[in-house]
Amino acid sequence: MHERSTEAPRSEHDLSTSPAVSRAPGETFGAATSTGDRFEILKPHARGGLGAVYVALDRELNREVALKQIVDARADDAGARRRFLLEAEITGRLEHPGIVPVYAQVST
User: Fold this and answer.
1) For residue 15, with 0-12 CB atoms within 10 Å meaning exposed, 13-18 middle and 19 or more buried, which class applies?
2) Where do the domains of the chain lie, and which CATH numbers do they carry?
3) pTM as predicted
4) How confident is the model at residue 104 (pLDDT cuts 50, 70, 90)?
5) Mind listing the pLDDT tens digit for each residue in 6-58?
6) Across-strand partners of 89?
7) Which residues are within 8 A (CB) of 47 and not within 5 positions of it... i.e. 6 or more apart?
8) C-alpha triplet 63, 33, 23: angle, nearest 5°
9) CA-CA distance, 108 to 104, in Å (whole number)?
């Protein structure tokens, strides 16, 4: 089970120095829309200890979003999943010009 949220990272790391990210440009997922899966990954953006961030296309709203996914190495760790989801929930409640809003949370 992988958790994803459409939010930006609090700190960013250059992907060129991180282990390979398991998502590829063009991969789609999320709640199905009339035209298929909601999010399409366009390119990797950053990676941290718990999550990887991608630039993705939200096909439902036709806009680019930052999409954050828990890294594969932590996906089976129940505590890591709880922290990841809690971060998305808390960030989703905040409204501030310096904080990227959370628009969706998707589990696959």
Assistant:
1) middle
2) 3-107 (3.30.200.20)
3) 0.65
4) confident
5) 554 443 333 433 333 456 666 665 555 444 588 899 999 999 989 999 999 99
6) none
7) 13, 15, 18, 19, 21, 53, 71
8) 65
9) 13
- Residue type, position 49, single letter: G
Residues in the chain: 108
Question: Hey, what are 105's tokens?
Answer: 């949370």
Q: Report phi then psi at 26, rounded to 5.
A: 90, -15
Best CA proximity match to 81, nearest among 104, 56, 107: 107
Question: Under DSSP, is residue 78 helix (H, G, I), strand (E, B) or coil?
Answer: helix
Chain centroid to Cα 97, Å, comes to 20
Report the candidate in 68, 67, 58, 4 with the shortest Cα–Cα distance to residue 33: 58
